[in-house]
Amino acid sequence: MINKLTIVYNLTTERWQITKDLKPTNDVVFNFGFEKDGFDVIQFNGLKFGLQLWRTTNAIPDLVCTRDYPKKKGIGYNRLEGKILETDESLVLSIADDFRLELYAENDGKRSEFTYEFTVPMPSQPYPSWKWNGRDWEPPIDQPDDTEYIDYIWDETTRSWKSNAADPALATMVSSTEYGAVESLVEE
Q1: What is the pLDDT confidence band of residue 133, given thresholds at 50, 70 and 90?
Q2: Which of 94, 108, 125, 158 qualifies as a FRET site for 48, CA 20 to 30 Å off?
Q3: So where are the chain's domains?
Q4: Beta strands 48-55; 84-92: pairing state
């Protein structure tokens, strides 16, 4: 599950279009594209574009990253078939934080800038007693350590972890046919 922001700049209308696919996860990928009305193939003339991403939670701007394209000096973009020109590697953003994306594109001596704000959504609270720690939902008490053999589920009524065994008297059974041994772990 990855967040995606697809940014497309129309060279004819000089308008920006952003399509967002935001999920409650902290990975995000930026796709950069261009279009020109009436053209399937776009010829570029000195194309440069980029972004600055700011975390703006609590009205305190904090620069997360700056990206400029082309990434290497002396390398340029000549033409584009299709719509997406670059896909930026995944960035890790904080869940439930607010962000401001400042974009620019320059081609054929014309420059355009655009600002877009978004929030990475927070996952749904699994149970009323669980608290958000800024990254994950945490239960009021830690899950037992013996999860190698026992699967636990949260019981909100008792606010405790319960064995998720089909037979309440038997937490799980581990068998080894190679040695002919059967070991039972009984819930006490």
Answers
A1: confident
A2: 94
A3: 3-119, 131-186
A4: unpaired
